[in-house]
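Action item from last week, closing it out:
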Amino acid sequence: MSTAAAAPTPAAAPAVGAGTSPLVVTLVVMLGSFMTILDSTIANVALPHMQPSLNAAADSVTWVLTSYIVATAVATPLTGWLAARFGRRTLFLWSVAGFTLTSVLCGLAGSLTEMVIWRMLQGAAGAFLAPLGQAYVLDVWPPAKHGPAMAWWGVGVMVGPILGPVVGGWLTDSFDWRWVFLINLPFGLICFAWAAAVLPEPKLPPRRFDLIGFAMLALGMAALQLALDRGQQLDWLESWEVRIEFGLAVVGLWVFGVHALSVPGAIIDRQLLTNRNAMTGMLFITMVGFLLVATTALLPTMVQTMFGYPVVAAGELMMPRGIGMMIAMMSAGQLLGRGVDPRAMLAVGFSLTGSALWGMSLFSPQQGAWPFVSTGFVQGLGLGLVFVPLNTVAFSSLPMALRTDASAIFMLLRNIGGSIGISVAVALLERQSQVSHADLGSGITPFSQPWADPATLGAAGLGSVVAALDGAVSKQAVMIAYLDVFRAMAIMAFAMLLLLPLLRRPKPAPPVHLPE
């Protein structure tokens, strides 16, 4: 299926020459990337407020999140083909316009059906912005400056999921849940006008549309996202729906992998799948998404339910993580520019991340705010030191024609890693809560504590004491479960150090110049 026709351009492409500042291009694509990644988590805290407004049940309102995630997963692999078909600049502009329009429609939705439809379209429209942004950053900067450039762009990508619950909670508490979506309008208009004025249009080789590859990849990713999102609610493999979704995911991804490796011109080029640094980087970025998103999902709930912080204060406790991440990214960019081995920075980054998670496994129910602040800041430093050198190493040996595809796969795997992280963390939290409750409860019996005889307490009219005792045991069990999950995540972070020898140090490459 060939691609000969051209698409209409939202705005006439300006003449872009050497006078266009790479920093300006980086800032505009960073804004676009930040908007869409922020929206992946900004709506989480607003769900309880949406439910009565949309007349939705508690188990169905979560489709507001699921629809966005699934649509993003399906649309992201199309980025490379669409960029070659219509032009990278054109696709970026249409994506910003579509994302902004659907954000407004989400804010105006009057029913759950409308909200799910608009969220699905919003996810599909915004799916292209982050990979296009990363490809632009790598193109407009010479290879020697890729580290600092990726640091600037990475702030929007990595800090977005952390700021999402904070911004969403503040908008919901101060105004209305609809502003979680309407806030995108002014920023979307600014981003569109700015991008139309400064973005260049690189010449990319034409590509055919790989229908089989896309269909199998879309099937596998959509089924996997649905299984991960609904598995906890439906008791995982006890549900036929989840079994079918996992089965479709395995079949779809297996057929896609065989197809991509055996058929020239597949939607994901074989050269990308056989590049050692790129494939190792994909594994690392999946783990980064796992650790970042899982922690971001667990901590706000923990500090609210176990420590009694209100939603805005809980969000503020997450801010040091974002600050540490920004400091580390800027430092990593400077260190890479001075020739520091990125693999050494990755080792430091995963060590700091693992140490912070281990510190979280030592939390106490009687602690104040400082342990949250200190461990969050250290974890932010660690993840920031991982993201920038990881992207530099993974993309160092790829030609420009493959950068859009590689960026799309990286964003997709980061999102998949986040989904897996949330599902595994929540499942492990629930399991460990039950195990800990049984262990703690087994120590409170009439034989070890004579006053704990239910018959005695009931006869004395102290049934409320039994309920209070069970509540205290349950709270302690959940706290222990949180600590167990953080400890498991720390071990996973330290285990990533064993894979560092698989990465090769990037070799200097000749500068890449976009055509005027």
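Closing note: The chain has two domains: 22-209+267-430+487-502, 210-266.
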